[in-house]
Every structure is written in C-alpha cells, then in structure tokens.
Amino acid sequence: MKQALKRSLLGLGLLLASTAWGQFPGPATCTRSANLLACIDAQGNAYSVNTVGSTIYLRGFDKAGQRYWAQTNSRYGQLTFFTGIATDGEAWVGYNRRVGWTTINRYSSSGGSSAKFTCNRLTGC
What domain of life does the native source organism fall in (predicted)? Predict the structure, then answer.
C-alpha cells in the first residue's frame, strides 16, 4: 500500500504543482470534462479526479492490491489537506504545501506507513 499511496499522493502533488504529465511512468488513457478527469493506465489502475470549488474528490482502483480507494482534498490557498480510505479498511491523512515551484508532501496511514517527500517542477521528486 505504501507505494500505491505514495503514487497517488505523488500524482496529486504533481497535478497541483502543474507538473507535466509526461513524467508519469507508462501511458494512461483519459477522458475529460469541465470538472472530471477519468483515467486508466497501462497496468489496469483506474482513477478519477473531480473538482467542486476548492474541494477535489479522487476515486480509484489499485490493480496490484485489487482494492478501491477514495480520497477527499480540501484546498486553502497553497495548502491542501486530504483524507482517504480503501476497501481493505486502511485510512490515511496528510497534506501538500506548495512553496513556489516546490510541493512539500506528508502523510501517514493506519497501515503504519508515513512519509515526507518534496517534489519540484524542474527536478521531480
């Protein structure tokens, strides 16, 4: 789960920092509308991102773990707080903080994993 959660957070952090999609491993097929982005990648993972005002709703399916997950993000200026839960009962909380071209990410989960990592638009994570 730690890798799947980190990938999810990494994707969100990069999305929030307006990083180019070309840095993600493997191509994904996406459909987009005004408020919704839905994608399926080459490994069979699926996710959607829906925005309503300053709230971002993420839903997805992790192929490797065979589980569904949901995450809600609330944005307050340069700071985004998030909470999530998966079908196996794991829950997580954390935040992303944007400082210039850098995003500082921190999370912890009920499964015992936690991390703090920094991403930059020029150098990646």
Answer: Bacteria
Domain residues for the domain of 100 are 2-120
pLDDT confidence tier of residue 26, bands split at 50, 70 and 90: low
- Work out the widest C-alpha separation in the chain, in whole angstroms: 37
- Closest Cα to residue 22, out of 90, 111, 89, 121? 121
Total number of domains in the chain: 1
CB 12 within 8 A of CB 73: yes
pLDDT of residue 27: 84
Question: Which residues contact residue 17 at a Cβ distance below 8 angstroms, ignoring those fewer than 6 apart?
Answer: 98, 101, 102, 103, 119, 121
CA-CA distance, 36 to 47, in Å (whole number)? 11
Residue 87 lies in a domain: yes
pTM listed for this prediction: 0.72
In a domain, 125, yes or no: no
DSSP 3-state assignment of 2? Answer: helix
pLDDT at residue 108 is higher than 50 = yes
Amino acid identity, position 100 = G
